[in-house]
Amino acid sequence: MNIKETLEKYKIYLLIPFFGVPIVFNSIFIIKNHSYIFLPLILIFLGISLNNIKHFPYELLIAFIIPLLSLLYVKDMYLAFDHFYFFFLYISLFIIFYNYKYKERLYNFLIIYSIILFLYVLYQNFYIYPYLLKSNMINEAQRNLIQIKRLMGTFSLPNIYAFFSLVGAYLSFYMFNKKKNYYYIPAIIINLIAILLTKTFIAFVLLMILALAILYKNNKKLFYYSFGGIILLILIFLNIRGISSIKSSFSLRYFNYKSALNIFWDNPLTGVGVNNFDIFYPVYKYKQANIIHNAHSLILQSLTDLGILGILFLYFLVKNLYKNRKSHHFILLIVLFIYFATDMMFYIPSVAVLYWILISINTDYRNKPVVTKLKTYSTAVLIFVYLILSIMVFYTPDRFYVKNLQDRVNRNKKNENYYSYYLNIYELNYYFRMDKDNVRIDKK
Questions:
Q1: Cβ contacts of residue 252 below 8 Å, gap of 6+?
Q2: Which among 129, 198, 225, 301 is placed 20 to 30 Å from 135, CA to CA?
């Protein structure tokens, strides 16, 4: 076995930094500067996989060109660099894992990792959390999160860990169904328990949808008998999470989404620029809402970032998803895309990479993408541009979230110009905005 073949076989371990190693380190994307060591590894594997560039789907090529247009008018370039880095990773991993030969090796790796993370979650629950609650090492917000015991493993939030466990549960069932090996049953149970322990409502709902869809596809008789079990699981989840907590979460999300729509409503043509939702949100925030830095929805984030171009961005992502309709994992891909649409997971590389890899490795069921020199060269240029923008991430100041938030709110209330330094393109939004009585553009 030559070096290239060895690297091909073991490239799955490239994913470990995304997930973190229990006790050793969390996901490297919790603190962005920890990931600069990781970038050379991506480049090495990308270099080995350059031949796969010609297979990059044209709809994804167009989709990822669209966010670059916001470079013409984005207010805070530093914030945009973060998302450009994420997009670079998604494109790179798609190419690196294109038509990966060792699929079952990858599935088993993710299943085993889900079990390891679950053991760490138990350690968190019975040792780390009680220790932190007795210490003065955490702030009030962290203390509140720990007290309600929403477990998160090596990730930064429980809903991120829930996304990972959802994939783990599905792959465990998929391998059990394929191999008829009962060793996969404990893995299924473990990942189901993990989702319950995160107390993430959307993950639980999507788990039910995923389970019913799989049952309907494979055993229609069992599908009808399964509703009793579904009702039991719903009652268990409601008891664990609490109805009042779910209502509170829905209320906050409602106001978050309303703010995002208002930002789009005021900037329908161009949006506010990639990842610049963060600096506009304080102006649009409702008193009843919480502090957020992302629209918590791929759809709304795309609209606020890119305006009507965001609709095109979403169209090409959905078109690529539809092309995978004959995939063995199409049901899971739909569920993960719904997760993107209802939460911020698309912008969390720690787990979003799972979606891109699952699309990339399963290419044997469909016609291969059309190969043209123009598409190949365009993809190469796109990767290079995103690489340069990604490198800039490590030379920009850290984001100044909560501690300076009040100052930012006050500055916005004083009508500080938060619009583009580079072009007056934002003024065009005035002619497209729906509510022309509420103009926020500085016309100097």
A1: 288, 289, 290
A2: 198
Does residue 190 lie within any of the structural domains?
no
Within a domain: 168: no
- The full DSSP string for 177-221 is HHH--TTHHHHHHHHHHHHHHHT-HHHHHHHHHHHHHHHHHH-HH
> Cβ(440)–Cβ(414) under 8 Å?
no
Sequence-distant (6+) residues with CB within 8 A of 175 are: 104, 107, 108, 111, 181, 184
| Number of domains forming the structure of the chain | 1
Residues in the chain: 444
Tokens 């019913």, residue located: 212
Amino acid at 191: N
pLDDT, tens digit, 9 for 90 and up, residues 73-101: 888 888 898 899 999 999 999 999 998 98
pTM of the entire predicted model: 0.86
Helix (H, G, I), strand (E, B) or coil at 236: helix
Domain span at residue 86 reads 1-98+259-280+292-396
Instruction: Give dist(CA 425, CA 444) in Å, integer.
Output: 13
> Does residue 121 form part of some domain?
no
